[in-house]
Model the fold of this input.
Amino acid sequence: MVKIGFDKQCITPKLPVALSGYAGKRIAAGVHDELYVRCIAMECSGELYLLAQCDCLAVDDVLRNAVLTRLNEPHLSDAHFVLMATHTHSGPAGTIDTSQKPFTGLTDVFGVSDPAYQKELSEKITLAAHNAFSDLMECQLTVGRGSIENVGTERHDASLPGDSSLLVLRFDRCDGKQVLLYNYACHPTVLNPSNLLITADLPYAVERGFAYDMVMFVNSNAGDISTRFTRKSSSYEQVESYSHVIIEEIRKALEQPVYQGAFWQIDIQQYPIVLPIKKVPPVETAQAQLQKYEADLEKGKQQGLEAKELRILASYVEGASVAVGLSKTLKDLDYIDAHFSIITLQELKIAVIPGELFSTLGTILKREGIEVFGYGNGYYMYLADKNAYDSMYYEAMSSPFERGVGEYMIREILDKAKGCS
Done:
């Protein structure tokens, strides 16, 4: 039987602090809701496992390794630790070490590295993990599935399929405490760059709708999925409205579970993967492309385009801006040594992806019975499909990888998943 423990710790930074996620500098004016790190610790047959999630834009291997060092837990192997981010765009800047390639030069989006906050974050994750490991208890497991419609859609063309699938895990401990984990693909970016309050955005209101002892949102293959075409406004009222939809679908999934009973198996395997870097254009070429998109955006404003159309044009500016940075930092880099993980939980297999996987690629895995935990165990930006490169989507422009790397990772995951029992 698997035993679980859990804990969460507040990771809201002290003000003043810059916000990350959108191009341009934003300074937080206050705190709308607290940010947290949440940990689920597990023990099975003498082996320890840890799932940790932070309300921030991204977490990299520098932070993950710092936590492992602080934990100093001999029964927790490197492979058995999964650290993920929700990907809120209204959290603190500086969580990514921008002195490391491929992030050098990308401070416009990720912010300048903040060693003090990174240290605080690693300490809070470690504290939550220690507390979770100190209170392990057997539990029952409930697995539910559902579909969340009219929240997230494919953000370039709402008529494309996207991914509305919902996976719900509820852990019912023998002391009566309950932990909920839900997995759904959507950029938690209801709030646009005009928001200057610290917030977890979409997940915060969902958590308030439940009386469980802890609620953990794990993002999925959300690289090309957001609320761009469904939101009526970029407001906290819209966040609340979406949360009602998500809460209802989670409850439906739990009312008719696909599994409910003993929790008897957990394992996590980690696999290295070499990801080829794309050939970047000269800085002058990238800057010319940026100027073109900036002119397109300005023209759109003058023509009085709707906010949704302007946001698409603005996203191209953001992508081209990142591409300028990449043209400076990737010219001497041929590949990135990354890794992905495969979690085996009962009959479920779950791939942990170190970045923002496109839904078209994630659904290939899901058709083969493999769920997706995104933004986990490192962060290397977009893993886009070939069409994104052919269509010059800004995700492809701002990805460090050459065309076809996303498909390559999917093939590797499918191959390794065959050997996971």
